[in-house]
Design brief:
The structure is a single chain. This protein is of the alpha+beta class and 216 residues long. The chain has two domains: 151 residues, Hypothetical upf0131 protein ytfp; 50 residues, no CATH class. The strands form two sheets. It has a six-stranded mixed β-sheet. α3 packs across α5. The N and C termini lie far apart (47 Å).
């Protein structure tokens, strides 16, 4: 038996969905700023009940190539890290999470049925298919509410690192700054710890990008 579609879940994100404006298109539909592909949106377009900053138990890495961003996308590593990635989490329904999950894997909403979340141990992966982000990441519950993310079914940290584009990093930075929990200097240092970033960015160039986003 799967999780009830109306059950609340936290969706924890670490990439471009940290930007609220971008994530909203996965719920309401439309073309995100800077993108060319329209998202159909979720069956339930309701906005999240709550938004919070979050910290993962694993780091992110940048690998592969995304045409939308003209650079490498982010993935959550499978291995634990003492300094995990920073992100945001949104309180939505299980059906909304499933629809976001499907859209991220280039499937139509309502394709995936989530497993019974109460049966899954935190800090485990559940591979749902062979899409780019087709592994559910089961995180520690937040105040008794399941918390989920997703990443590559295969450990992304084993792939060659690649550099993210300015547009992609700017979108992530915009979301993290909106959480109001970090300084531009600390954020630059944090991003440099993610594999792939230092291939095209140094501390000064990152601080300039972050300062531009903070001023916008």
């Amino acid at each position: 038996m799967g999780t009830s579609s109306s059950d609340p879940v936290w969706y924890a994100c670490y990439g471009s969905n940290c930007s609220w404006a971008r994530f909203a298109t996965y719920l309401t539909g439309g073309v995100p700023a800077g993108a060319s592909m329209a998202h159909p949106g979720a069956r339930d377009p309701s906005l999240p009940r709550e938004k919070q900053p979050t910290v993962f138990g694993s780091q992110i890495c940048f690998t592969g190539y995304a045409v939308t961003w003209d650079g490498a996308p982010a993935f959550l590593e499978h291995q634990a890290s003492p300094e995990g990635a920073w992100g945001r989490r949104y309180l939505i329904s299980a059906s909304q999470f499933a629809d976001v999950f499907d859209q991220e894997n280039r499937r139509l909403p309502a394709t995936t049925t989530l497993p019974e979340l109460a049966d899954l141990e935190p800090e485990t992966l559940v591979v749902m298919g062979n899409g780019k982000y087709d592994a559910l990441v089961i995180l520690e519950p937040v105040a008794g509410v399941p918390c989920l993310s997703f990443t590559s079914p295969d450990p992304p940290e084993r792939r060659p690192a690649a550099a993210p584009s300015a547009a992609y990093l700017s979108t992530i930075v915009r979301g993290l700054l909106a959480g109001g929990t970090t300084s531009p200097s600390d954020l630059a240092d944090h991003l440099l710890r993610a594999s792939g970033v230092a291939l095209a960015w140094d501390r000064d160039s990152l601080r300039s990008l972050i300062a531009a986003e903070a001023a916008s």
